[in-house]
Please model this.
Amino acid sequence: QVRLVQSGGGLVQPGGSLRVSCAASGINFKLYEMAWFRQAVGKQRELVATITSSGSTSYADFVTGRFTISRNNARNTVHLQMNTLKPEDTAIYYCHTKSHQRDWWGQGTQVTVSS
Model:
């Protein structure tokens, strides 16, 4: 079965850095586009970044230049390095992938940016 298991995140002060990670199983990971979404309290879930099977990346405007998505196909993992964090980055971060049939989601990782 497909599983996306997340780790990392935590609490950091504004301007600090955190990393969230996602380990996938049950799929031929290297063939799948991966993404990170986030959902803050009282807000809709929003796309943060994507990385294709070939390694091409894209970012939401609000994280461009601060966040980096990467993947390690040997370990079936995708990561989101978050630098220069702002309080508005506070959210639960979810890793995601999809097929033509359905979506799969990680369990979510809390990221809190607070002074």
